[in-house]
Specification:
The chain is α/β, with parallel strands linked by helices and about 270 residues long. Helices cover about 45% and strands about 10% of the residues. It has helices at about 10-35, 50-60, 75-90, 105-115, 120-130, 175-180, 185-190, 195-220, 225-235; strands spanning about 40-45, 65-70, 95-100, 120, 130-135, 155. It has a four-stranded parallel sheet with strand order 1-2-3-4. Strands 5-6 form a two-stranded antiparallel ribbon. It is elongated and about 60 Å long. The N and C termini lie far apart (about 45 Å).
């Protein structure tokens, strides 16, 4: 429970009050958690004020908590790294740090390099909602692609270019969608026909790929190659915001059904 600030131009007085109030609420919740025997992840506040972030992190670290939450939702990408580092530098290294607002692959890598351990998995959901399949790689899997740049991180399954692509989303992927395998053309058809199975297969693939991405990060850290692998990743892929694949989409016409759109029309009869 926190006194979160959404105004990016908040003054120091408001930020200081937010830190004090959140610490007070944390103490009250810690008392209650003793009777419930549940772990507590404590929020680290401070918003855009460096001194207040340090004060919040230092005071929170003195409490008997099991982990920490750092929220950078709404922060400019250029300032996220310094804000996160300001907080993590004053937290114990033997307790996990969870970040909100760093769900993209670039955000995850930025978070890892600045001391974050846990991330939300919303990127897989967002990609699925846009009809996109995750295809990016990291670490050892990317070694063979050092020469190319500005490559897409996702594949737009709404694209009509895939209507006759009969290979799986990723031949190296072990998810249910790829190991069957279900082809790109089939998943494109499912989306175009507004079949529920389309997003289900995409979500299965995207969650698998995001988990694989995190595994590659852990392996890279263990080998002492993370900074180098991160630089390769950032040089290889495009970092433009991925649009909604369905935007400007028009349902394709099935010539075998006399011009009727593939989208199913359901009529409720009372």
């Amino acid at each position: 429970m926190t006194d979160s600030i959404t105004d990016m131009d908040a003054k120091t007085k408001r930020i200081r009050k937010s830190v004090d109030r959140s610490l007070r609420w944390l103490d009250e919740n810690l008392e209650k958690s003793k009777t419930l025997d549940i772990p507590v992840f404590a929020p680290v506040m401070g918003h855009t004020d460096k001194e207040e972030r340090i004060r919040s992190a230092t005071a929170t670290a003195e409490r008997d908590v099991q982990g920490f939450i750092i929220n950078v939702l709404g922060f400019d990408r250029d300032t996220v790294a310094s804000q996160v580092r300001t907080s993590t530098d004053h937290l114990p290294s033997d307790k996990p740090r969870l970040a909100y607002g760093l769900s993209s692959p670039e955000g995850i890598l930025e978070g890892v390099s600045n001391g974050i351990d846990l991330f939300d998995g919303s990127y897989a959901y967002k990609a699925t909602e846009k009809g996109r399949a995750i295809i990016f790689k990291f670490g050892q899997e990317l070694k063979s692609a050092l020469e190319t740049q500005d490559q897409p991180k996702t594949l737009n399954l709404w694209s009509t270019d895939l209507a006759h692509a009969f290979e799986p989303l990723d031949t190296t992927c072990g998810c249910d969608a790829c190991s069957r395998p279900h082809s790109k053309a089939y998943i494109h058809h499912l989306l175009n026909a507004h079949e529920m199975l389309g997003p289900i297969l995409l979500m299965s693939h995207n969650i698998y790929q995001l988990d694989r991405f995190m595994q590659s990060i852990r392996t890279s850290i263990e080998k002492g190659q993370f900074e180098q692998d991160m630089k390769v990743f950032m040089n290889h892929y495009s970092h433009l915001k991925e649009g909604d694949g369905m935007k400007n989409h028009q349902d394709e016409i099935d010539t075998d059904s006399l011009g009727v759109h593939l989208k199913k029309k359901r009529t409720l009869k009372l």
